[in-house]
Amino acid sequence: MISEFPAVSAPTMPAQPDALVCVVDDDKAVRDCLERLLRSACFNVETYASATAYLARRMHAGPVCLVLDVSMPGMDGFGLQQVLAGRCEEIVFLTGHGDVPMCAKGMKAGAADFLLKPVDEEILLAAVQQALDRARRHGRNNARQARARALLHSLTARETEVMHRVITGMLNKQIAADLGIAEKTVKIHRGRVMKKAGVASVPDLMRLIETAGDVTHHHSHPAAR
Prior knowledge:
There is one protein chain. It is elongated, with a radius of gyration of 24 Å. The chain has two domains: about 1-145, Rossmann fold; about 155-210, Arc Repressor Mutant, subunit A. The protein has a five-stranded parallel sheet, sandwiched between helices. Helix 3 (about 75-85) links the parallel strand 3 (about 65-70) and strand 4 (about 90-95). By secondary structure, it is of the alpha/beta class. It has nine helices and five strands, in the order βαβαβαβαβααααα.
């Protein structure tokens, strides 16, 4: 098994101090040889003998790629993939007993790659690098979404109502009539929306809402009129 993953003679990947590769496999020989291979390519590596052991670690702040075995005692690789759904880890499945339906299942659930043992070392390293790149992109997107949601959630209920009408193209006087408030009050709320959202135009506001992916926010407290 060790010979399936010969050590790389020189580093082939750029150092990424914040990135982490986690090998999750119940076979110690596989864990050890994968760790040597990945470290020789300048990756930060941790190894885990089970899905449960991996889940016990604190979430890593940077990009994470799991090199994950499918068949393990207890929770298998697909089970771990399901638990991690919605998190930023990217998964490269590596198994000696894969078939087309198994591969399709993993990829459909969002895996970055599905490789069969024995695997060419350069193919594996390239898959890991691509998975880390994807994890980094997802992390940036999640951060932008979280910031956009925080800005929108800072709006009062009335400001949110005004915002929803502004992005449909309604005029201030139309919004006032629709909400039963004065046009001057609409202008005040509209200004507050733009200031809190940190935008200067309606198109910018619409892009912020699109980034947030959450335009149905409501407050439980009464709207300030």
